[in-house]
Amino acid sequence: EPCGFEATYQELASAVKEEYPDIEIESRLGGTGAFEIEINGQLVFSKLENGGFPYEKDVS
């Protein structure tokens, strides 16, 4: 778990996948402390901008 966000990522990915079963989800490792969520190329959440992790309601 290089970035320390794996558990959070998996939890959110599961919630989104449950809501949208046909969605494709991917993760990319980075060293900046970023945790960003994009849908169809549009940024819908950024940890760097919001100062914390998203809740399920933020991404579903």
From TrEMBL:
Keywords: Acetylation, Apoptosis, Cell membrane, Cytoplasm, Disulfide bond, Lipoprotein, Membrane, Prenylation, Redox-active center
GO annotation (BP), single: apoptotic process
Topological relation to the membrane, as annotated: Lipid-anchor
Family matches, as Pfam families: Rdx
Assigned protein family: Belongs to the SelWTH family.
Signal peptide, first to last residue: none
Known function: Increases cell migration by inducing filopodia formation at the leading edge of migrating cells. Plays a role in regulation of apoptosis, possibly through control of CASP3. May be involved in a redox-related process.
UniProt subunit comment: Interacts with GPX1.
Major subcellular location class: membrane
Protein name: Migration and invasion enhancer 1
A Gene Ontology term for the protein's cellular component: cytosol
InterPro entries membership: Selenoprotein_Rdx-typ, SelW_related, Thioredoxin-like_sf
Lineage per the UniProt record: Eukaryota, Metazoa, Chordata, Craniata, Vertebrata
